[in-house]
Amino acid sequence: MEFNFFSKNRSVTFVTMILASCFLFTICLPSSVVATNQQERQSISVENAPIYKLPTKNAEIRRREGGESRGTTRGLSRGLSRGLTRGLSRGLTRGLSRGLSRGLTRGLSRGLSRGLTRGAETEIISVPIPARMSPFASEHTGFTSDRQPTLRWYISDSWPGKIEFTLNETRVEEPVLETYIDGPTNEGVYQISLADYNITLKADVEYEWFLAIVPDPEERSADFLGSATIRYLAPSDELSERLSSTPKNKLYTVYAEKGYWYDAIDNLSRLIDTRPDDSILRTHRMRLLKQVNLPLAAAYDSKMLSK
Question: What class does CATH assign to 66-74+129-305?
């Protein structure tokens, strides 16, 4: 009896151990599978990452970014004090100068009034300027196969005012386009489409585009400015054939390989707009931006990946 009872207990214990092991295996399996899938996706994203090839070696650097090199936020305090000081100085100087011909009292009165008014108007503005404004552009003149491309940029902070956008044709005095865009409400990537303004790029002509935050319209040397250059270059027959045989969600890899920066970043960004949580797309854009020395813009995509 004792032997049989002991055997039963051992059998029950053994069965219990098996069931517990199966339960633990069932719990642990999904997490291990998820981890494996994530590693596989990361491996795939690294292996298939686009590589941008410069169309012209040792070309002149044309891109400019707005912001301090370390990305620290600047305020408008310097602009405010300059505005007040210059307002007083210019008002007094102009007033006194005109006073020589119109009467010293009248000139001094107007000078003080205008100087104080202009200074006070400037002093009202007390908003921090974004730490960085980076055109999504290669350092050198970038190519596009689109006569009406979409231009993008990264901005690190909100801006309550307008942003001035200008497109210039090289060696032409009048701008091709000058308009004002509402400032962003958050950090992020923003864009302007030339098609919305009926602007068409000429073939083999270099254009320079500017983004400017203008703290003081009377003192444009204080502008917070970013700029880059672009050139429309019709695709070759070989490139057109490659593009026609490439899936739409992989076009950016071909554009990057052939040196068409603006087309590569545009195609990739459009995909991200439709699938913002796609880690592979984010990683690929991050790698493209790093290849053209835009680390802070790339860091934005990295931050979005970690959310």
Answer: mainly beta
